[in-house]
Design goal:
This protein is of the alpha/beta class. Helices cover about 35% and strands about 10% of the residues. The protein has 12 helices and 8 strands. The strands form 2 sheets. The protein has a 6-stranded parallel β-sheet, with helices on both faces. Strands 7-8 form a two-stranded parallel ribbon. Strand 2 (about 55-60), helix 3 (about 65-75) and strand 3 form a beta-alpha-beta unit. Helix 1 packs parallel to helix 6 (about 140-150).
């Protein structure tokens, strides 16, 4: 199913479907949580807070990731009865078969699965926490906003850095005038999510349901890690537009600090569209040296003369 076809179907469903009553948790009862997507973000970060409640289900097409989730649960809560935790390869089965046993879902899949999983949950009155960015496309964001309003569920987009005490303290200091007049806020990140060519095809991990992982995006070839980049399903999916949003969608919505900027600056202003500068790299790539290293060096060398002001650096050539 194409992504646009799915969203059209979701819109039609919302028009003709009676709203489901949102889950209400009784006083003193822990929330029943399901984790959709058991990769590093879900297992290493989200589960740290999820164990304060009751984890009742894991959903991931890779059995190795399911095993990692169980191991993490035992580490975080040695008293947890893991025999009662339900396991699903496909989150569609999770919502079809166990929706009545879930109060809220935490979605930490690749970006391309955020909207699909969230919409299925919200239609069933299940509250949703979805990792940043909210969705792969603006079209999906609009569908998610409409569903949250229609079904009356509690929703949140995960910005762990923005939820930390440092951001709140900075906003409080600013409101108190401790920094004086702030006229500009500069945010910097050296993350680059991009590839110029696709690595050789390889077989997905044993037991993994590859079609389910691809979901509503085109079915592509899996590839393994190399000397410079991780495997497709580990982190490299950020590099491909059918599954991720590159460094802007990954880091720009978090490390870029848009929420901090909004809190600190009461007045904003528009700037001209940035100029694109092509950086052609010759020679051969060196292990551990990527375009971000070159970008940092260029910024350092040209910062004082203003060359990098409002410019986007794009890289090409054999030295990538």
């Amino acid at each position: 199913m194409k992504r646009r076809d799915f969203l059209v179907g979701a819109a039609c469903f919302s028009i003709g479907c009676t709203a489901t009553r949102p889950r209400i948790c009784g006083k003193g009862r822990r929330l029943r949580l399901a984790l959709v997507g058991c990769g590093g973000r879900g297992v290493n970060i989200a589960m740290t807070d999820m164990v304060r409640e009751q984890i009742v289900a894991f959903a991931d097409p890779n059995p190795w990731r399911i095993q990692a989730a169980f191991a993490r649960l035992r580490q975080l809560d040695p008293t947890a009865d893991t025999s009662k935790v339900m396991v699903f390869r496909d989150y569609r089965d999770l919502f079809d078969k166990a929706a009545n046993e879930i109060d809220a879902v935490v979605i930490t899949t690749q970006n391309s699965q955020h909207a699909l999983a969230a919409l299925m949950a919200m239609r069933r009155g299940i509250h949703v926490f979805v990792e940043k960015p909210m969705a792969l496309t603006v079209e999906e964001v609009h569908a998610m906003h409409a569903a949250a309003k229609r079904y009356g569920v509690v929703t949140q987009v995960g910005h762990h850095g923005h939820s930390a005490a440092g951001i709140r303290l900075a906003a409080e200091y600013m409101a108190a005038g401790a920094f004086g007049e702030v006229r500009e806020v500069w945010c910097w990140c050296d993350r680059v999510n991009s590839r110029l060519k696709r690595p050789p095809k390889a077989s997905p991990p044993a037991g993994m349901d590859w079609d389910v992982w691809c979901g509503g995006s085109p079915i592509c070839d899996w590839y393994d890690r190399d000397e410079l980049y991780p495997a497709l399903t580990w982190h490299d999916w950020h590099n491909w537009i059918d599954y991720g949003n590159g460094a802007i969608g990954n880091m720009g919505v978090g490390e870029g600090g848009p929420e901090l900027v909004k809190q600190l600056l009461s007045n904003t202003y528009d700037i001209d569209a940035p100029e694109v500068v092509l950086v052609y790299l010759t020679g051969a790539p060196r292990h551990g040296v990527g375009p971000h290293d070159v970008a940092i060096a260029l910024v350092k060398a040209t910062f004082e003369n203003g060359f990098v002001n409002n410019r986007v650096l794009e890289f090409a050539g054999p030295g990538i």
